[in-house]
Amino acid sequence: MSKRFLLMLCAALACGVLVAACGGDDNGGGGSSGGGGGSTSGAKSVDPASMNNAKGNVTYCSGKDTSGDLKEGIAEFNKANPNLHVKLVEFPEDAQQQHDQFVQRQKAKSGDCDAFESDVVWTAEFASQKWLMDMSKYIETRKSDFIPSTLQTVTYDGTVWGAPRVSDSGLMYYRTDQVKTFPSTWQELYKEAAANNGIVYQGSAYEGLTVDFLEYAFAAGGSVISDDGKKSTINSPENLKALQFMVDGIKSGAAPKAVTTMQEEQARRAWEAGKATFMRNWSYCYALSQKAPKVKGKFAVAPYPSFEGGGKASVLGGHNMVISVYSKNPGGALKFIDYMTSEKRITANAVKYSKTPTIAASYDDPAVKKAMPFADALRQGVENAKARPVSPVYPQISEAIFKNVNAALSGSTSPQDALKQADTDINNALATF
Amino acid sequence: MEAASVQAGTPTGRRSRGISERRLAAYMVSPSVILIALVAAYPIGYAIWLSLHEYSVRVAGLSRWAGPLGLRNYSNIFSDTEFWQAVRTTFIFTAASVTFEVIIGMAMALAMHSAFRGQGLLRTVVLVPWAVLTVVTARMWQTIFDPTLGIVNSILGTDTVWLGQSPEALIVMIIADVWKTAPFMALLLLAGLQVIPGEIYEAAKVDGATTWQRFRKITLPLLMPALLVALIFRTLDALRIFDLPFVLTKGAHGTNTLSLEAYQTFTANNIIGKGAALAVVTFIIVMAVSFIYIRFVGGNIRGLAEE
Amino acid sequence: MATTTTAEETTTARPKPPRKQKVATPKPPWWLWVAVAGIVVFCLAPFYWLINISLKTGPDLSGADIVPPNPTLNNYDSIFKNDDFVHALGNSAIVSLTTTALALVVGSFCAYALARLKFPLKFFLLGLVLSITTFPPIAIATPVFKLWTDIGLFNTLPGLIIPYLTFALPLAIYILVSFFKEIPKDLEEAALVDGATRFQAFRKVVIPLAAPGLATAGILTFISAWNEFLFAVTLTSTPKARTVPAAIAFFTGSTEFEEPLGTIAAASVVISIPLIFLVLFFQKRIVAGLTAGAVKG
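^ inputs. structure came back:
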């Protein structure tokens, strides 16, 4: 009986395969697109002139608009542009879920989202799959508005694929009642932390750890992949210094063991419960910590110190507005993007919602300086920030980094072995077809 | 017996009343079959098709046959240490989880079986863990095992980073799953217990059997059918587990299961061919386990299809 | 005549679902109460922790207090003011009820055919139905998403109901087949003798007798549809069709990183409550229903 059943089942599945083969042509087909350097050559470009007579509906997809800046911007845009109507579709808060939701729609060639709020590290991945429209022509007209590092995040293969809307750079929060003068090097900071209540940061095995690790690594002079993007350079003495430093920090008690499970929120909670002297986190914690009774009024914010034997470094975060290649209204989408990334709008977002500006001029605005007293530290962070490796296989590279760094931090491998494994993993990733 | 139902004086009896049995069967079965074909068979067929190709992550639309025989993705998987670790983790999790669920479930069922007031209320209480969303269960256990703010560490007085270390994270995952599912097992076993006639126990007691002997020689054998059915559904569920590790640890620290590995490859890393192959391999493994069960349990399932 | 007598006997002596066997101890021993207490603590303690969190707001959430220092119903208040959540409750109710109703109909049809009718490939069908429980849901999600997008079922309630229905079938069919087999054939035979068609016999004789089995399959289906997460997140994009588990994924604090533990906990408590009441009312039926399955084989 079992044998017959097995045969029948195989027959059923074979039918399923046949149906799929006949129907599924979206991922099949041979054609490679352009040889030579430009794997994205031939991508559809959006003409700035198409903004002029744009009309109709535009759907903007983004992670949940928690602060309300998107909704406000959309309402104002709709009022000022009676011919266009922008609708907001929200994805879950988790960055990975936003990524998956967008990718799913693009794979299905769905015009559901005209434009999308993309994390800075997704540009290469999306552009190489030809899911984004080329926005170079548009950005040319206002290149000087944006801080160069933010434009770097939106450039791939010599082309610009989006407009930077919100930036972010990590900051060092510290307790002013426990730290008299802010240390000038990471080494001193950790000593200070060990003598007090320690430092908390994002050490869990996720993208946040890649950011945190690279902040140390870049400062120590290390890098992840070679300039031509073909080889891994992660197994270097500089990176080893940085990783060893992090591991020793946990051993010496400067950072609690629990840091290996912390993401942004866990670190913030430990900090707000008064259990840490230092916290590495994004700018959003400032306003929230002002409301926490245990730390209120007792803390300040500073840019990162330098790494002994190296320099200063920070890693850029943020979001860019990109246009889907399946959009039915690219002109309308572009007009909306033009409005949302205008100096007026970005400055208003900084003042009202503490959104880190991508436009240099915003930082000079007195209202912004008043609303965000740490604006200067933030600007420094953004201008000097380095981007994470730009590559279509970035998700795998990041996984190689955070998985192995986390293993070293939790003590299950030595820093040397961790970097060796990361090197292998990254080279495997770069060899992906 | 057919003969007893034949209308008096009509040799062809049933056939002349309504449509034929086969036709009726076809009508009654077709909605299920159509749904299954559409929602289950087609996606699996599609996944198999995808798994025979490689789709470029760097160049849009570029794909090729994963030769030889379309099996390159599969050979990559079988030579990948991460895959075998995921297999190990999945099987260890399944074995441990199901074992504890059976033991705890059995204990709960035996306790509930004894008569006392408030049985209905107890049964409801017992189903509470099963009624809570898996993703919420995971968050809940995350806070309970939090190294600094969690209640486990304050009671034990330790500072173990439960979800950040290799065997501990899997242990927490097993605890969370057992908490959620043992009650459900308990109910299935309770139902089985309630069919066992009390007289058998009375007779055994008269013969001088101890509690343990009564359990071993009466309860267990008579409970076997219910136990085996509960086992198969639970085992197949545990082999495919995704929600729990996804929320608890995203697969880090030795909690990477097969489903999670497939998700990571297919969706997060966008390696479509290999990801689909992983999903197909998961499917085959689970199928194989269910076949093994059916061989052992055999009569139970086959009996359903027999006249 | 023999036939009539048997028919009479069987119609008057309607089989009852198997009786609960009462163990003959008049008073429960002390250790039983200990065991019961243990069970209650085991099941409810983590749930209590959830309620505990749901009554806290702000910085309290960063603390590990067993009893909320400043208990407040703010979280419950805010989730009910959240239109999306209330709408999601409605969606969940519609989807779960429809799925359950359809699963009972479609499942009982298939189960009856399997239990009573003669047709080829029976074992294959049974195996096919049971094998659905071996499919990894993630393998299903993306192709269904694509298919739904193409035919326009994406982000609709029917788009959710159809997969839920399919995945509810295995357990429902299994339970119902076991149950139908419990029912003596004589009753249907009698109905056929009286001139009913097969289908009428099914409708009027078998179904009423299978009520406990239907109740069991119904509750199990309802609960799994109510709690389903993966498809809910994959196949919906706006509150129009979103159900509660997916809606919880959208709960926010005031920033993109902030995780509102308090409101998530409150929402979890709220959506567990209908299930608890459902189970409270029907738990007798569940046990009776599952009993039938256990007897077979």
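Chain B touches chain C through 112 residues (CB under 8 Å). Residues 81-113 of chain B form the longest helix (33 residues).
thumbs up if we can close this ticket
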